[in-house]
Amino acid sequence: MNRIDRRFAALKSAGRTGLIPFVTAGDPSPGHAVALMHALVESGADVIELGVPFSDPMADGPVIQHASERAIAKGVGLGDVLGWVTEFRRRDADTPVVLMGYLNPIEIHGYARFAAEAVQAGVDGVLLVDCPLEESEVLAPLRAAGLAQILLAAPTTAPDRLSKLCAAAEGFLYYVSFAGITGAARLSTTDIAARVADVRAHAKAPVAVGFGVRDAESAKAIAAFADAVVIGSALVERLAGAASVDEIAERVRAFLQPVRDALDAR
Amino acid sequence: MPEIRDFHAFPDAQGRFGQFGGSYVAETLMAPLAELTEAYLRLRKDPAFVAELDRDLTHYVGRPSPVYFAERLTRHVGGARILLKREDLNHTGAHKINNTVGQALVARHMGKTRIIAETGAGQHGVASATVAARLGLECVVYMGATDIERQKINVYRMKLLGAEVVPVTSGSKTLKDALNEAMRDWVTNVADTFYIIGTVAGPHPYPLMVRDFNAIVGREARAQLLEQYGRLPDVLTACVGGGSNAIGLFHAFLNDRDVRIVGAEAAGEGIATGHHAASLAAGRPGVLHGNRTYVLCDDDGQITETHSVSAGLDYPGVGPEHAFLKDAGRAEYVGVTDDEALEAFHLLARTEGILAALESSHAVAQAIKLAREYPKDGIVLCNLSGRGDKDVHTIAAREGVQV
Q1: Cis omega before residue A30 (within 30°)?
Q2: What is the pTM of this model?
Q3: Residue A183 pLDDT more than 60?
Q4: In this complex, do B284 and A106 lie within 8 Å of one another by their Cβ atoms?
Q5: CB-based contact (8 Å) between A116 and chain B?
Q6: How many other β-carbons are positioned within 10 Å of the β-carbon of residue A253?
Q7: In chain A, N or C: fewer CB atoms in 10 Å?
């Protein structure tokens, strides 16, 4: 059993909702990337989604795009991200790490080479936003190496595709709570509750819900019907400009701890 | 790559041209793309739709466009005959209208009320605003802030046509960023919005659909050559940014193995300088904007900023069918520098009285080179994809002339 499955099994037996924060690797500062990951765990992260910066993040909103641009401007690339996961693993052998990003950096790195290096570093899964199930044969070396391919489902996903996604889901199924880009503000929890319940009934993996979760209140509303809550843009926005390790840790705590508490108070 | 018997058999049902093409998009776009694919595959075989499109192309666009023998240019060069397919004479002044007329009809058949488009040079934006105005549809055009600055006339034209032009300030502030932003709009507003992509890139079915709508260029030219010259050309050439005018000319000739095909990419200040937009000549296979194709990127996979004097060629990817034709050995892709394009622009203006678009001037420059390789009874067919009125300020500024 890999780290992701172990973590979700533990959450289930404890009756807790998972908290999955997303940060862009190397933002706000490449020198503090590993410290930021540990800070996330200290504030209650169950899984870390680490964004691999890409120059053309089509599915992301301005907050994450700007974070990507800042990181790229500081020279952050896939090799750095894998190095940070390696370093993170020296102190944390348990928290699952999922790399989230776009296909081109991995395509250029080479799929087989990436798979070997990612496993070696201690990466548990990948969520490649622009690689839908239909195109995912290129990811065969990743799956063969034991990396979970995290799939996305959306409100626009047709029923027959949804069953395919549910059957193929590994690690967890990431349900995009509405048709839009990351960081957008709209979220009608009543609308998506029924859909998520349906997905959970069919998916062989736990269901995490994201896109539009901004604070403890919205996270708690989602937690009523999801196995885990993903929170990204609001956190990335909060971290922008944090200059020191202490400041990063403090901002993470101030933002994430109330979310964790709200999830646990259910 | 195995021997290709029929180049017209591509793409396959997944939108693949060999290893290129496909649908590399976010989950939220899979359903709208499936809906569009279903609608388009039905409409392209529907005689009523085809007749409607033909009527628009004849009476609104002004087709067929002539094939013109550039006799004085030919004499000046002293080689094979240079024939120009005059897409610059279309309504709105470029080949782009062939595609937007077609996609707007698809949009109407699908019941969409809002059109969005991305644009580089502004030609596709103008062509989209034009068809939106004609059909009474709302139109929003995304354009890089850098391009807005260098293409002010087209920005104003779009506004006159009732379109909203949204400046894009992310990334390199050019065509690729406008495309990202238009994709985001589409993801958010799929219910009522139709995204008119302006080139043969993007996810399936766009490379297929945009190629189909532009393929009339080559079909006409092929028939015109047979009628007027009793033979096919020796070589075709066209400029390649995303590659829509080029595939438009090339497609009808792909199975005519004796016809050589040469695409002219923007070599900018020279490929060796790194300041260029020659994705096929200098790039590598990668994934960008929903398809696998040749891209310009660094070793981290980050898409690199491109340079060309012509905004319409300033794109770090290229249509997947061109990537396929390159790897299959059916077409060659070569670089033409800014300076070579400018020189061809002036030469065509003075010998033929035609101001070509800077994009098309790359093709003219390549046609001149090719004409020198063939005997005087040879034929070089060059797609003159657009007119140059939009570029006169750029040219004046570059040459230090106050207009």
Answers
A1: no
A2: 0.95
A3: no
A4: no
A5: no
A6: 16
A7: N
